[in-house]
Amino acid sequence: MSSAAVGDREGRQGGESPEGDKATTTIAARSSIVDSLRGCGISGIRIDKEELRRKILMPEYLRVAMSEAIRAKDPDAGVEAWRGGDRQEDHAPEAPMVVFVNSRSGGRLGHVLKARLQELMGEEQVFDLSLVKPSGFVQHGLACLERLADLGDNCAKVTREKLKIMVAGGDGTVGWVLGSLSELHAQSRKPVPPTGIIPLGTGNDLSRSFGWGGSVPFGWKSAVKRSLQRAITGSICRLDSWKIEVTMPAGEEKMQLPHSLQYSEESTFSLENFDGELPDKVASIDGVLYNYFSIGMDAQIAYGFHHLRNEKPYLAQGPLSNKLIYSAYTCTQGWFLTPCINNPSLRGLRNILRLFIKRVNCSDWEEIRIPSSVRAIVALNLHNYASGRNPWGHPKPDYLEKKGFVEAHVDDGLLEIFGLKQGWHASFVMVDLISAKHIAQAAAIRLEIRGGQWKEAFMQMDGEPWKQPLSEEHSTFVEIKRVPHHSLMLNGD
């Protein structure tokens, strides 16, 4: 989630009139109200618990085999449990499903939601992410189903082919699960299960983008049943996935990284056809992003907020309290007083950053000028950002043509790059009074960062921030390129 700020009128919804802005703001407000009402579970449709259970519950012998494979971290252990088990019930359900729950999300709701889901679909199909990592499920549990299918178990084969995934958590949790499922592409293990969302985070922008709402409603027990039912019938949508690689001088202390990033054994980064230099020894971290990457002001605020919440967990009682604390914390960081504060870390990013992009069907890097006033740069994949805001706006066709832009979609192979200037500019962007500072649309992005007076830069990816150390002598590079395959999402509308 991000904080945002005041800007010039050039970015006003692609040149729309004030009346157009007012209409856009009204539509946004109305959409927010509708989203809230939908979240409250006003649907008029009663879902029978036992009927729902029959549609999603796997046969017991498959559940036991998968559970044993995950526990032993060995698919063959699940096969052995299958050989010695009772396979009388061998009919695959209509929509077999597993759920990953981030029990730490949603204030106190994560734990009780986990219990409710286990009641609806059995303990073996509900995984607490603090105990079972999504990669463990992919490499052991899912592999066990595939082994059983290869041994002639038709029920296991059909279950594997029809399997759907639900994730109860925030954007970072969803990204973590999607990243693990993407391993199936690299291993040629098809099909890749589509993913739906039960929103437990603070921003929940991935959830909003695919019709799952912005929060869990007050009547959450009934809403959970409705979410599972919508996952059964929901259509499948495509989502662009982007690999991010951060290459830095070696020798820095190991950083504390979010779940979605890890140190890579070998860097794939190359400076071929590029003006720059790397030290003799480099270290690299990489991951996959689905929503956005940002550097600067908003990432620094998010980093401080996350640490405050970890130090004082009693403050994190749910999405509403998180947003209130986040807003209050933002006001203490100096971003509303940048012209009056002589602090290098509050200056424009152009002092430490060079931005290069590749356009569609172009192999050459093009340097893009960063406005001197920009203190945060965001590369956005979705329409939703910072709890449902749309900082890119809805530019008119003539504005798009003038700027060389195209209409943004989640599967168009492009990232929208925009800037936030300071606290006031970001605030107006976040309430849809103006759009952010449009910088570029790109099929690939490269950032070159050199510290100087800056000892570190703050970055975040899909709501998970980290502090990136900078070298005074050598540059740190961030490169973002599209993954060849799309992620598959279930539509909750």
Automatic annotation (TrEMBL):
InterPro entries: ATP-NAD_kinase_N, DGK, Diacylglycerol_kin_accessory, Diacylglycerol_kinase_cat_dom, Diacylglycerol_kinase_pln, NAD/diacylglycerol_kinase_sf. Residues 1-25 are annotated as: Disordered. GO terms for molecular function: ATP binding; ATP-dependent diacylglycerol kinase activity. Coiled coil: none annotated. One of its GO terms (biological process) is defense response. It catalyses: a 1,2-diacyl-sn-glycerol + ATP = a 1,2-diacyl-sn-glycero-3-phosphate + ADP + H(+). Pfam families: DAGK_acc, DAGK_cat. GO terms for cellular component: membrane. Keywords: ATP-binding, Kinase, Nucleotide-binding, Plant defense, Stress response, Transferase. Residues 92-248 form the DAGKc domain. It comes from the Eukaryota. It is an enzyme of class 2 (transferase). Its EC number is 2.7.1.107. Phosphorylates the second messenger diacylglycerol (DAG) to generate phosphatidic acid (PA), another important signaling molecule. PA is required for plant development and responses to abiotic stress and pathogen attack. Belongs to the eukaryotic diacylglycerol kinase family. Monomer. PANTHER family: DIACYLGLYCEROL KINASE, EYE-SPECIFIC DIACYLGLYCEROL KINASE. This is Diacylglycerol kinase.
